[in-house]
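Bumping with the actual sequence this time:
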Amino acid sequence: MLPLDHLRLPLLLLRLGSQVPAALTGHPLPRPRSRELVNITLEDAGYYKLYAKLDGVDIKASGYKTYVHPFVTDPAMSYIFDDVDPLGIKETETSFAGVPVTYTLQTVDAFGNLRTSTCDTDGPQVTFEGPVPFVGATLDNMDGTYSVTYNAQVTGKYRMAVTAANTSVCQYGGYTCAGGSQSSTEFCTLAKPASGGDCKFCVDVMEGSSLSLSGDSTFATFPDSDDLDLVSGFTIMAHVKKTGSSGYTKEYIVSKQSEHSGKGYWFALLPLGGELHTLEAGVYVGSETFRIAKASVTLSASAWAHLSVTYDGTKFQLFMDGALLTTTSFDDEEPKFQRRSSQAVHVGKYFKGLIDNVMIYSDVIADHQATALCPQNVKFVDDKLVGYYRFNEGYSHVTKDSSRYSNDGIIGLVCDKATENKAISLKCPAGHTITEVLYANFGENDGGCGSYVADCATATSAAVVEAACLNKESCSVTASTAVFGNTCKGRARSLAVNAVCSSTTSAWSTDTAPTNVGNFKLDTPECPYSDHIQNKLPESMRTSGVCTSWDMGTAVAGEAKLFAATVSDVCGYPGYAPPSDFALTSEITFQGYLDTSIAATCPSIATTTPATVSVNSTFAGSDEPCGRFGDVYLFSYMPTEARNGQLTISSGGNKLVDSSVSVVPGAISAKNMVVKGHLMAAEAGVPTTIVVEPKDAFGNAMVGSTDYSDVFQYSLTDSSGNAYASKVTVEKEAGQTYKFTVTYPEADEVYLALYVGLTIMEGFPKTVTVSQPQMRQAVNYGAAPAARFEHTMESHGSNIYVF
């Protein structure tokens, strides 16, 4: 008899020779022999105790302890979940542009057991579809979980796919999953992607925050690097919102200067009172010479302003919201540039207000207003962008550099370096205390503020500095062997410290600078039959056609005209669905024209304005997951009046499309023909004329040079219903006018029918009364002509008539 005990299972009693309980997948146990083998398959991982009894007595009183490991990973049972972190968002659903975020993938076996050892599958793949597609990174935590990190550079809606062993992971959980602290059967509440479809998770990437400064508060510091020295032409730009004056003479937006001499470069505002400021840019060019440019600006406390400066070695140009404020030239001097320095870059020193989206280029760039409003995935494409500070973190003291150089900054950084037997001094702004020591070393130190590195270190350095400085507004520590011990002998010893000053007032604001990313735009209309368009349409909207004969500027009366337009944002990023309250007005309007048929008798109503043609629009992405990706509008209209019109597509007061359309007549029709001439009576033997002006089914006169003579048919029957022989000819005259010449050979009542193809013209047949030929008296004009014999001849049935 073998009792089996588990933490979460009732005691099971297995008797030799019996069946294993249904809860356990097992095999029959044999009858007792001198040696017995028991085989069972357990579905619940964990520790078990096995007790073996012989004649009711335990063979081993404490039992036999064993552990059942989870089975191999089953992606269908695995799930992702968000860890609780200072960012305060669910990274499985939301993130901020330019900010790396992390969530966890928990691997689970087919029986619902959390895996707790190194993962047994190939590294999972995490991909994002959206305005700028990208991939996430995964790290095996060696405990059955993966850490997934991603960094979306551009805002918008994305679809995230998570796969393991080429199979989709479809489940996600909330904070209750954190750390896998729940038991294997109660780990958390799971759900499949709410609207992802195809196991895609919907992730909304947003602008997160801006840098909030009070003048006396901390500011952002980015360590020195050669790329930030700007030893050639440069461009600096930033969005700012002033909330008052800090009381300082100069409020820096961006600066890289010596604390003592001011040498370096800067971009700053000088308050003049109220909303008036002087915008100033300067650069030290050597030989104790500074080049400076200034311009007056008015900055509203309720609106963001985009300020920028360019310098090419001979001139400064200052801009506000894309408009040139001033050009300060040094053309009489040779080109001169900034000298290299070891200073850090500061953003917001002595500044009061908000700063966002700072961009520093090591070149002069054009159209920086558009560049600022359209942040791009520059980390991978632009090596001239040497600093890109988006301030989207919204928490902590670390702020990312989104340029390709990843030279991240610190908000509230204080630092100092002292040679041996001298003291470092750290001082925070009023109301701030030192809350963290980022770097401390007594030994040999290289680098500058924010980027110190140790060539020789003393292990106790951090602990000594923390004891002296943490939670204080200021502190001083002597760089001596008496304090740190006699390490790094024979080296150029110094004490270098980087620390963080913080306060209860946040350095972040949720008020963010404007951007054109996500601002809806309808692209230029195009042929709807291309693969590019058809592949974006759901099956129900797909159609066929040929793009080689398609022309946006022409349409045919009576035929459906289709065109497509993709949706993007103002920055050109694809895949943006229109806003929920978005409404399109699409129509074709025509100018009035003079109706000559009534102009003489009714001049007051002679001008006719054709009715507006409505253009139908259908958005292909209405049922798409994550609110995007079906980024195509399909438009259709059917004009009936052949005229030149104007197609407009607008939303609110904004015209998105404005183009001319020429509507040409449709196919020639038996309806609406204009027929004039001898339709009621004729004289035998005398040719009669009928004039036809062909039109399409909507009454549009045919135009162009096409000859429709062969399209016209006719028939004539006599009063007895027999075919009536006559001579009929059809000639095309000027424009689209056709002359029928009919000669009736004898008197009768004749039924005349005219056709377009096989279709009788509207208003036909006509009854024509053909009278006997009339004798007419000759009229002489001048001398009588010489006598001569003339005749004409017609046949009718078996008779020949000579006239």
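The tokens above came from a reply further down the thread. The radius of gyration is 44 Å.
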